[in-house]
Structure formats: C-alpha cells, structure tokens
Amino acid sequence: MTFQEHYSVADLRAISARVGQRQGWDFSRMNTSHPATPWEYVSVVRGLLRATDTVIDIGTGGGERLLELSSDACQLLGVDPDPEMITRARGLAADEGATSVHFETGTGADILEQFDVVLDRHAPFEAEVIHRLLRPGGRCVTQQVGEHNMSNVREAFQLEANAGAPISPEMFIHAGFIIERFDEYDVDYVIRDMDSLVFWLQALDGAHSDFGGFDSERDADAINRLLSTSLTDEGVVTNEHRYLLVANKPG
Ligand SMILES: C[S@@+](CC[C@H](N)C(=O)[O-])C[C@H]1O[C@@H](n2cnc3c(N)ncnc32)[C@H](O)[C@@H]1O
C-alpha cells in the first residue's frame, strides 16, 4: 500500500493492527531509502575490531547489530535494561549459533570487568562509565541520533524541538578520552509506504526513543499534517541526523 491523501482514525487503526509491533530493535521490514551516507555504523566498527578484542555493547536492544559483528571479535557482551530486549537478543544468538556473543540485563554501569572496545549505538551513555569499562588503550565507538532527526515529523506531531546536541567531543575529552573521529550527517530519509510509516512511528515508543510512539486516535491529525507537508512521489520525506564518535582511552 502506498499513500492516500487523508487517513481517518479507522484507517489508521486498521493499519496499526496490520503492521504489528516491532521485535527487538528490528526495522528491516520498512520500505525506505536514503542517499549514501558518509559512514555506515557496522562497517565502521568492523573496520576497527581485531579478532582478539573483547567488546561490550551498551543499550544493545535486540542485539541485531552486535550479532552482525559476532565473527569480528573474540567475546562480545550486549547489555540492555529492558529484559524483553535481552530475551529477544538471546533468542537471535541461539538461532544464529553465535556462541561468542552473550547478553545480560542492565546498563553496564555496575560491570567491573574492562573491555577492549565499548560500543553504543543510539542508546543513552555516560562518558565516565564508558571510560571505566575500557582497559587502558581501549576504544569507544558510538553513533547517536542527532537533535534535528526527523524534524518535520516532530513538527507535525507538535513535539518540542530537542534542546541540543546529544554528544560532543568535549564530553569525552572531559572524561579522559582522546578523540579519533567525530562526524555528523543529516540526509533525507524517505518512507515509501504507509505501512512502513505507521510501523516506524509505532515502534519509536517513549521507553526506547525520544518520540512518543503512535496512537491512531491521538495522532490522526498529526499524520495528516505530516502528509500534507511532506508527501512526495517517492514517499514521505523526513531526515536522518546522526553523529559518530570514536575515542581512545590512553594506555
Ligand atoms: C534506540 S534503541 C538502540 C538499540 C541498539 N543499540 C541498536 O542500535 O539497534 C536504545 C536501547 O537503549 C536501551 N536503554 C535505555 N536506557 C538505557 C540506559 N540508561 N543504558 C543503556 N541502555 C539503555 C533501551 O532499552 C533500548 O533497547
């Protein structure tokens, strides 16, 4: 299904039921496109990992990205405070026979062990905690969602603009890191059909993102506002704003 010009609450209720809930942090069912980006997170991490590395992934979600890296390091641990995410991640690891990857419920803040690499993709972080989790000479890679992300969607849903950048080199320098790389991109992100749009917004619930999820009754006007400003022949055009930081703990 592509797009109608207008959706009633009943239309949206039917779409919402049809697309169902996200499993873990898996958005692969969405039909989307965007131009080539200056980096791709998993490729960046893969390029930095050594086969002997121990890795911790903070806020691993359903472990989808960490599992993509399972054969690039020696031991990998994913942590997430949401037990449902950890159940999903363990299930995926078992399905894939990924014996080098383990998952535990938590934020990582109470882990005493040190790792060669700390990862954090789109999850809350404290630079001081990351610093403590790294052995001297270790490396941190984090990608964070930028403050201008999906700005026209936030506007249509009448959400407050985000206060400021969620990450800066200074946060990490202050915690004792040396910055290797700090980059930013902001590109168009096209959602090509209505099922994908509703699935996406519904998946971005308040417990796991700074968007409040989707409710057919509450958000019918917002969806129609978004379509009136942002629907093109390609689909609904919004934007993807990301930061990437790679930092070293001096040895
Ligand atoms: C946007 S999802 C990203 C999941 C995964 N890193 C990915 O990129 O696919 C954010 C995850 O951070 C977790 N989270 C929430 N608060 C956290 C915290 N204080 N520390 C670590 N993770 C947290 C959420 O449960 C959620 O699974």
**Ligand kinds:** S-adenosylmethionine
Q: How many E-type strands?
A: 8
Biggest pleated-sheet summary: 8 strands, mixed
Tell me the β content.
25-35%
| Mean pLDDT value | 96
Specify the CATH architecture.
3-Layer(aba) Sandwich
Amount of helix? 25-40%
Low-confidence stretches: none
Q: How many helices in DSSP terms?
A: 9
Per CATH, the class reads Alpha Beta
* Cα-to-Cα separation, first versus last residue: 55 Å
- The SSE string, one letter per element, is HEHEHEHEEHEHHEHHE
Looking across the biggest beta sheet, what order are the strands in?
Answer: 1-7-8-6-5-2-3-4
Structural class: alpha/beta
What coarse outline follows from CA principal-axis ratios? globular
The third-level CATH topology is Rossmann fold
Q: How many domains would you count in the coordinates? A: 1
Describe the structure.
- The chain is α/β, with parallel strands linked by helices.
- The protein has a single domain, classed as Vaccinia Virus protein VP39 (Rossmann fold, 3-Layer(aba) Sandwich).
- 33% of the residues lie in helices and 25% in strands.
- It is built from nine helices and eight strands.
- The protein has helices spanning 9-19, 41-48, 64-68, 83-96, 127-133, 151-156, 169-174, 194-203, 216-230; strands at 32-33, 54-58, 75-80, 101-105, 115-121, 134-145, 178-191, 236-248.
- It has an eight-stranded mixed sheet with strand order 1-7-8-6-5-2-3-4, sandwiched between helices.
- Strand 5 (115-121), helix 5 and strand 6 form a beta-alpha-beta unit.
- It is globular.
- The model has no long low-confidence stretch (mean pLDDT 96).
- It binds S-adenosylmethionine.
